[in-house]
Design a protein that fits this description.
Length: about 210
């Protein structure tokens, strides 16, 4: 794990050292968990996500790996991609992360999230219940306001055909979910995180995996 701004750290990595980028960047939506009132109680709000106060531009990341190594088209998967769809390149595919699995309309949480990949696979759906405190397979407290299921990140590694033993980069690592998925499935992991609290959580979680 590197602590700092990924856009400063990535250019210092040795050429050709990254085989895939699987990440969940800040979406540019100013997301704050629990920012609503229910009856007479105000739900405690989370701290804002660093970088989420301005539109996310995926191009510096995509351009860096294409221009740094034009002979290798490495797999990319970018979560929350519908939020910055107008800044994605042509081509690629959207994957639907179905978070309600049919729970639907009664819930105030979103039913789905969209992930973009540069792999031209069939358009796919990953189904896993993940809404608020209802989190399939998870035990214990939420580790990050935008925490993803380890199972989703492990599925993305397979979907993007990331080979076993590959070096996978998550430049927006948050609580280290992609790292846990990589180590549990036989890939190597390089993570970057700007927020010191999230960095500590990610390091501990990856060590314990
Ligand atoms: C959407 S969250 C990722 C959450 C992650 N998927 C998880 O399961 O915990 C994005 C993360 O990127 C971090 N971040 C924002 N800008 C960054 C930057 N320039 N460099 C590195 N990390 C950054 C934020 O602090 C936040 O933890």
């Amino acid at each position: 794990m590197y602590r700092g701004n990924c856009l400063d750290i990535i250019p210092t990595l040795p050429k050709g050292s990254i085989d895939a980028v699987i990440t969940d960047p800040p979406y540019g939506i100013g997301f704050v968990y629990g920012a609503s009132k229910t009856g007479k109680f105000e739900i405690k709000k989370s701290a804002p996500i660093l970088g989420d106060d301005k539109p996310f531009d995926p191009m510096p990341l995509l351009n860096f790996f294409n221009s740094a190594d034009p002979d290798r088209s490495i797999p990319f998967a970018l979560c929350g991609a519908d939020h910055y769809k107008t800044r994605l390149p042509e081509g690629g595919r959207f994957i639907c992360f179905d978070k309600s699995c049919g729970g639907g309309a009664a819930s105030t949480f979103p039913d789905a999230e969209f992930i973009w990949t540069n792999r031209k696979n069939a358009r796919s759906i990953f189904r896993w219940v993940w809404q608020g405190c209802v989190r399939q397979g998870a035990t214990g407290n939420r580790l990050h306001v935008s925490e993803k299921p380890v199972e989703l990140m492990a599925w993305l590694l397979e979907h993007c055909r990331v080979k076993l033993g590959s070096n996978v980069l998550d430049p927006y690592a948050g609580s280290g979910t992609t790292g846990v998925a990589c180590l549990r499935t036989g890939r190597r992991f390089i993570g970057m995180e700007l927020d010191p609290g999230n960095f500590e959580i990610a390091c501990k979680r990856i060590e314990e995996k």
